[in-house]
Amino acid sequence: MAQTVHLSCLLALLVAGPAQGVKGSLRGQDPGPRPLELKEVFTLFQIQYNRSYSNPAEYARRLNIFAHNLAQAQRLQEEDLGTAEFGVTPFSDLTEEEFGQHYGHRRAAAGVPSLGRKVESEEWGESEPVPRTCDWRKATGVISSIKNQENCNCCWAIATVGNIEALWGITWQSSVELSVQQLLDCDRCGNGCGGGFVWDAFITVLNNSGLASEKDYPFQGKGKPHKCLANKHKKVAWIQDFIMLKDNEQTIASYLATHGPITVTINVKLLQQYQSGVIRATPTTCDPRHVDHSVLLVGFGVEGRQAEAGSSRPRPRHSTPYWILKNSWGANWGEKGYFRLHRGSNACGITKYPLTARVQLPQNRRPVSCPP
User: Fold this and answer.
1) I want to staple 195 with a disulfide (CB 3.0 to 4.6 A). Which of 105, 112, 135, 272 is the partner?
2) Residue 349 belongs to some domain of the structure
3) Catalytic annotation on 154?
4) Average pLDDT rounded to a whole number, residues 107-127
């Protein structure tokens, strides 16, 4: 553990210099960093994230990709309007195409899903004031541990399971950890680790009359389509139905505060270089029309940050409203597995597909309150 922390500190110190040099070399302004500087940073990256390459040619290729990604992180650092920090991540040796193939999912065709924007305001008190902050992580037994999808393209399944786990915990005061593997094996579209959609996952849960526990039906990092074992295991949670909310951030915040976490699907592009802070993307840097990564929306807040003395990058003095999102890339990524997006600008298309299960019929619901 001590070695990991030490390497993280060294990476943080070394990246700024090489990134500037790489950026300049790409633009033809200077010859770039000394080879030893870049290779030192790359060696630290390999140690930190346990990377090795099959031959010298592959090493050279990954080194070039790494240099390009450092330059990209530097550009994002300059262009982002929020408080986000971009730099070295576990994905810094992947091309943008490789990253998208492994950690996003295929994009939905226009008009999908044909659910309609359900939920009438009188049903759940949309007119109630939205609190300043909400963080379901602070509630006991609601948010399960951070998962790591590894090489399985199953963000859609993990987000779905996280949504049901949270709602089950809020409604029944019963902590459950549910099977992602069941969704991969029993997915009605049979895609397993090949990608999928949250709405298909919810339909799969309904078709299988619930979900088994993670303990009984554990995650294996690979799907076995058409080898569904759902009937062999006891179901420990189930849903009544699922709905899609209105594509409005105020509506989403109100529902989140009064019901619980929601699944959303966003454009994954900026997360490859993300380290921490609030991403305030523009439509150019993160097109809201092209969403390809499903995550769990667990809260929101407001960050007030003063400009840092001596900082090379001015920080906004005004407050920044943000969403808190739970990712599926392990606790060593981002903010201990979470990340934050600017709230109020449809950052990265967060309003496109806000879906949530319902574990209890609306007329039987009791009021709930999100921890501030």
Assistant:
1) 105
2) yes
3) no
4) 53
